[in-house]
Design brief:
This protein is an all-alpha fold. Helices cover 78% and strands 0% of the residues. The protein contains six helices and no strands. Helix 3 packs across helix 4 and helix 4 runs antiparallel to helix 5. The chain is elongated.
């Protein structure tokens, strides 16, 4: 059984984590709205994901997220320009980006974000061009990563305990 002091420290760490994550999420949403991004919630979602790691871990995995997003945006922008909404083209793109990640040494995190970006660009019907959607997705995700890393750097988590929020 944990001591009272340990429980208080865990609760304090959890409350600080909640505060950090909330502030980062709000900041990314407000910045994306100020930039008139069409779907600012993608910046917010990305920031929330980044804030779940320590700064060192977040920095490392954020590059993988960004690499995957770039790959997915490039492939999705190109293919959606010609095959928007086509499930066969999407399936081929998923396999192709997976193979590019494998051959180039990118890991599953990069592939996961490439796939997410591909799905958003290729499978969601929009009135804008596929390249515009791809650019928006990249900017929103990059913004979310930047805000998350900036806040994690300015307000680092001091204690890390397992099983906390």
């Amino acid at each position: 059984m944990a001591s009272t002091g340990a429980l208080v420290a865990e609760e304090r760490t959890s409350i600080l984590h909640i505060a950090r994550t909330t502030m980062a999420a709000l900041a990314s949403q407000l910045i994306a709205q100020a930039l008139h991004m069409p779907e600012p919630y993608w910046a917010t979602v990305t920031t929330i994901v980044v804030m779940q790691s320590s700064l060192g871990a977040a920095w490392k995995v954020s590059w993988k997220r960004l690499e995957g997003t770039v790959l997915g945006a490039l492939v999705g922008g190109f293919l959606a320009s010609h095959f928007n909404g086509n499930l066969i083209a999407f399936g081929i793109a998923m396999v192709g980006t997976g193979l590019v990640c494998l051959i180039s040494g990118l890991d599953r995190t990069s592939y996961r974000f490439a796939g997410i970006t591909l799905a958003i660009i290729m499978l969601v019907t929009r009135t804008q061009s596929a390249w515009t959607i791809a650019a928006h997705r990249f900017v929103e995700v990059a913004l979310g990563i930047a805000v998350g890393l900036l806040l994690a750097g300015l307000w680092p988590e001091r204690l890390r305990t397992s099983g906390t929020v």
